[in-house]
Amino acid sequence: MKFLLLLLLSLISVKAYSYSNFIGHGYTSCLNCHFNPFGGGPLNDYGLVVSATAIGSTALYPKSWDEEKLAYMSGFLFRKPKQDWLRTQINYRGFKVVRNPGSSETEESQWINMQADARVILKFGENDKFISVFNYGYAPLPSEVPADTKASEWRSREHYVGYRFTPKFGLYAGLMDKVFGIKVIEHIAFARISPQVTQNDQVHGLTAHYLGDTWELGAQGFAGNMTQDADLRMKGASVMLEKTVYDIHRIGASVMSSENEYLKLLSYSAHARLNLKEGSAVLSELGQTNKKTENGSGDTTERFGLLQTYLRPWRGTYFLANIEYFNRDTSQDDYTVRWGPGVQYFLGQRIELRLDLYNTRSFAPKSSTRDSWMYLLQTHLWF
After folding, report:
1. What tens digit of pLDDT does each residue of 203-216 get?
2. Backbone φ/ψ region at 239: left (φ over 0), alpha (ψ -120 to 50), beta
3. Domain residue ranges of the chain, discontinuous segments joined by +
């Protein structure tokens, strides 16, 4: 266990993991396991070790392998890195979506390659004080984009440099995710769509991160995604604050203002990440987005809510329950509720399998619509 213990002790000053529900394992912040202090993107060495020794199942490995062996193989292509300054990673995520399952007339099935990335990380200094992250890969065009659109589906998802002036304070500049709310992995969640913080909403900007003993602060100013036309770039700023309560839980709040030549958005939310221990957790978020259009015809206020539970009966397996709320216009009584169960299984350190079932129901006092059903079968691989 010497290798594992030395690695854990060298990085124990802060606690983190990738998915927000992993607060159930005692990790309240994202900095320790991710190069991005707000989560997402490539894992650092500690994150890979935690993935191998605490998160992933051991079903694929011989019983003779101990945790030290799993930690040793957590590097790129199952090897311990030969140098300190360079890391490479490959990441793939795809899923099969089935709409209206069981219906002979309306059932639709489709496989979507959602993400295929190659990542290069350069890191220098004590505790990776200076980092450069480059992430290039496949990003499919949204389904609503016309089929004859010639835009490329290959692009940089993120590229940035970061410098930690102290273990508590760092600055990052480049193309990154926006700093706002809980970063749940469901990219179709209303809590991500309404404030425009989905999978492909990265922006070029400057991000500051401060980690206190019992609280964490992020602030970001951004000029939009520079690959877009100038009139479409969403420029603005955001702030997020989280506070640790009772040593193991987190509560937080976010606010973000952004605009381009056609649209102004003001989003704000409050959230909580609760540790049920032994890997189980509850996530919740409630927020609002005020939208103002150039001519005023599309002015509206949207409201969104999210409640997720993660129960971990044994290593590698999580049973999920998801409830979402969305009101497209708070001046109207119409709203939508989406709910459903799911199961997430980390077959090994590098293999995640997930099944989600969704029921979507619209509530409107003057009309009625049939419920819609959908299930997703997701595969996530990283090396």
Report:
1. 999 999 999 999 99
2. beta
3. 2-382
